Known about the structure:
This protein has helices at 2-22, 41-50, 60-69, 88-92, 104-116, 143-151, 171-187, 209-214, and strands at residues 31-35, 54-57, 76-79, 95-101, 121-126, 156-162, 196-202, 219-222. The chain is α/β, with parallel strands linked by helices. It is globular, with a radius of gyration of 17 Å.
Amino acid sequence: xxxxxxxxxxxxxxxxxxxxxxxxxxxxxxxxxxxxxxxxxxxxxxxxxxxxxxxxxxxxxxxxxxxxxxxxxxxxxxxxxxxxxxxxxxxxxxxxxxxxxxxxxxxxxxxxxxxxxxxxxxxxxxxxxxxxxxxxxxxxxxxxxxxxxxxxxxxxxxxxxxxxxxxxxxxxxxxxxxxxxxxxxxxxxxxxxxxxxxxxxxxxxxxxxxxxxxxxxxxxxxxxxxxx
Length: 228
């Protein structure tokens, strides 16, 4: 199984490098987050042994269980899914980056727990670029106010933006949505404070990560392409 995972990782990384080159960058400019939400702890261990070192989980309880089970491994855990306020404390015990700050109440909860732990929590702001009601995140016209809110919360470090392409769209729609996130980031790129620096764009999954990289992604969240 590990050999299969090594081959899959190599192929995905090769595609990342090619897409990065097309956008005038290198593979070093793109972080691959191996999504492990559909596999158990032992399969996750095999993926890490195959070479994955940054993993993404959608559910706080599963992240906690896997982090404890695999504590002997050198893993950077990212929380990539919707986060409930009452799960913030247990999530921050393990996650090095929160991808989906999607509403003011969650921002406040993360800031409160970060302050209680005397730490600055690394986060991304989720933006609903597709406009789908089923998607979480701030609307494009709400991003400026969300950033201003976070500037006043020193226990959060806002490092960029995150989005998910719409479920109903095709590759062209995804490209437009990824470009939109980049344009939103660029519009606020001059906002640099002690706790805000929008350098990262987390966008793109197994079906569209190459397009996302071409449009400026610095973080891609890839799952199924690694386990086929």
